[in-house]
Amino acid sequence: MVEALPDQANSTLHPRENFEFIGNENAEISLFEALNGERMHHAWLFHGAKNIGKATLAYRFARRYLGAKPSQESPLASFVDDPICQNTAQNSCPDLRVATRYCPQDEKVKSVISIHAIRELISMFDLRANNQLGRRVAIIDCADEMNEASSNALLKTLEEPPKGAIIILIANSLGRVLPTIRSRCRLLSLEPLSDEKMKNNFPRIDDANLVLSQGCVGRVKVLENFDIENTYKIISRALETMPNPTISSIIEASKLGNDIEKFEIIMAIIENWLSRAASASMGLEIREISPGESANMARLFGQTNLPKIYDAWKNIATLKQQVANQLDKSTAIIEVFNQIKAQIAR
Question: What gap in Å lies between CA 65 and CA 96, rounded to an integer?
């Protein structure tokens, strides 16, 4: 069984089922104006941080482009009970296809979006559209997870788009998308929300979630389901006692990451902590989650030890890849702490 689909966070609605879009009003208005303009660009590349709402906006746009009845809540809002909206939510809209790293044939998440997935996606354009407008939509989530072969398989369709077709590419890292792909798309950037907007939309958000979500609406909801305030206390307790943390504090932290999504959250917390520690070591003001942690971070690393933070950060990236290749998650978390300890003590 698949632990988590690559285009859906656990315990949250899939973006195709989500009819709420928070923030990035300018991006929504840009799409609305394009939808009502004389000429629609055939390829769009939505880019921004993970969990910021790119896929939610992509489905929101797709529903309206395919002819869903508009409602008045916002420029691209549609009536939930519209047949196109219902079919999209149930993943049964014949004029909408999506390519991800998930392979339905063997129920596994691959390391990249395969050339087979792209070919399956664009084969839809050989079929007759079911909607009265003659339109079809393809979504690639995420474009920075395509390799050279799958990117090249997409290029011809981007160069010679079928009539009535729109291709929406989603990217967490714009720099990892091939220039040949980027140059054929209209770019649309989604930006993190300010603290003020986050608090307005999530009145009960705690300090840990506010800092760690980094202005990403989808991440707030994931962290809310993870008891992030208590989780951060456990992780930071081990980090703040470096280079001599207790074995019990490391083991307690390692037990938190018992599935892939929880593991990734633990890694994100540690990466965020190291990032803020780097700033604190240079004497810069940081957003504290617990009182006094800025001074403690500066004490641990100091301005001359920035390479240590960078090396520790690189090691996390390596271990995340090893977990993807079946390394035990708890073992990987313990190894992260051991490597940070070694870097500080070096």
Answer: 11
